[in-house]
Design goal:
By secondary structure, the chain is mainly β. It is 0% helix and 45% strand. It has a single domain, classed as Rieske Iron-sulfur Protein (3-layer Sandwich), CATH 2.102.10.10. The structure holds FE2/S2 (inorganic) cluster (FES).
Length: 106
């Protein structure tokens, strides 16, 4: 089961920007790559640093703590499947943006 969480319009990042959101009890980094949105957990799977504060290069976010780079679409460490940051589907309904969060397994 999953839940769609609306993103308040004031918190939707402009093109090329990012926003740190608290949604569904999660800290989520939302990136707007020229109209393509990607949502990831704001916690690096290496040692937990904020990925929202990382350096963005195209679709890749580089963690500021130790430099690991993650693909925003897949969540995987670049050129590896050794580490993965949680990704969240982003859906549109007209102008409204939603982040979809899976319910935790029972
Ligand atoms: S905490 Fe992100 S690379 Fe180490």
């Amino acid at each position: 089961m999953s839940q769609r969480h609306p993103v308040p319009a004031a918190q939707v990042p402009a093109a090329g920007q990012r926003a740190l959101l608290a949604i569904g009890g999660q800290s989520i980094a939302l990136f707007n790559l020229d109209g393509h949105f990607h949502a990831i957990a704001d916690s690096c799977p290496h040692q937990g640093s904020s990925l929202c504060a990382g350096q963005l290069q195209g679709r890749v976010i580089q963690c500021r703590a130790h430099g690991l780079r993650f693909d925003l679409a897949s969540g995987y460490l670049l050129n590896s499947t050794a580490l993965k940051v949680t990704t969240y589907p982003v859906e549109h309904d007209g102008e409204q943006l939603f982040i979809v969060i899976e319910d935790p397994a029972p």
